[in-house]
Design brief:
This protein is mostly helical. The chain has one domain. It is about 90% helix and about 0% strand. The chain has 5 helices and no strands. Helix 1 packs across helix 3 and helix 4 runs antiparallel to helix 5. The longest helix has about 40 residues.
Length: about 120
């Protein structure tokens, strides 16, 4: 369950990055034609933008659930067997990195989608 949740949290965070941060970044850097070509090749990006509110809420809920499960597993001790103990510790470490990478991507997408436009346009 935890691995599936981490995967979908990372997928959701990447989606928020694709729908919101990537377009603004490319246009700001003067690469509007690149963005137009990208959306022509992958029209799903514009679909994601149309549902960005739902995407951010769902991804936020998945990140919170992922954090809950990550904290719950941290409390549990790893097995005594050396091979299983090493695999357990490695899995916990990898899960933490994936989770925090997902959180960073989510915050970047959130910033570009909601925070920065409110600062610039005062909406």
């Amino acid at each position: 369950m935890k691995k599936v949740l981490n995967f979908f949290s990372l997928f959701g965070s990447l989606s928020t990055l694709l729908c919101c941060a990537l377009p603004v970044t490319l246009v700001s850097l003067g690469m509007g034609a690149t963005f137009a070509s990208l959306t022509a090749t992958f029209p799903q990006i514009t679909w994601l933008t149309g549902y960005k509110n739902e995407l951010f809420v769902l991804t936020g809920v998945m990140l919170l659930a992922s954090y809950y499960f990550m904290r719950k597993v941290e409390i549990q001790a790893c097995p005594i067997d050396p091979n299983q103990k090493e695999a357990c510790q490695s899995s916990k470490s990898t899960s933490k990195y994936i989770f925090w990478a997902s959180v960073v991507l989510y915050i970047i997408g959130l910033s570009f989608s909601f925070i920065i436009p409110r600062i610039i346009y005062g909406m």
